[in-house]
Amino acid sequence: MMMDPIRNSAKAVIIQDGHVLAVRNRDHEGDWYLLPGGGQEPGEPLHEALRRECREEIGAEVRIGALKMIREYIGRNHEFAEEDCAMHQVEFMFECSIDRSYAPQNGHLPDEWQTGVDWLPLSELEQFRLYPKVLRTLLREGVAGAPLAYLGDVN
Fold this sequence. Notes:
With about 160 residues, the chain is α/β, with parallel strands linked by helices. About 15% of the residues lie in helices and about 40% in strands. Strands 1, 2, 3, 4, 5, 6, 7, 8 and 9 form a nine-stranded mixed β-sheet that branches. Strand 2 (about 20-25) and strand 3 form a beta hairpin. It has helices at about 45-60, 80-85, 135-140; strands at about 5-15, 20-25, 30-35, 35-40, 65-75, 90-95, 115-120, 130, 150-155.
């Protein structure tokens, strides 16, 4: 099986008042969530990719802080292998902030499966289909003071 070229993705970890901002999506099993952000275009620095993706998906300007986590996603190894078997993505997750007045909303160019944007309570993340799943534990434990972590190929 041929693999697609490796794709870089920049993600925003936005935590405010005990909640994390997540993009809501829907499939045949119901709602599921991802951190805001997405694919880097050729010639585009990661920070610019993250700013652009956040404008498109959540309709907000983000202030980008420290790189906190790096995750690889090799699609054939995970539950979405049927759809993503050729995908290999490296995700760079940055600690970010937005204006306190931000009200969750889709941006001007949401992803095709995106249905909304929500603040998810950190204390209740186990109740949500948040991907990668490891974020449910990592975000609850707090990434603000944690050193940079390479998570590997996790789901």
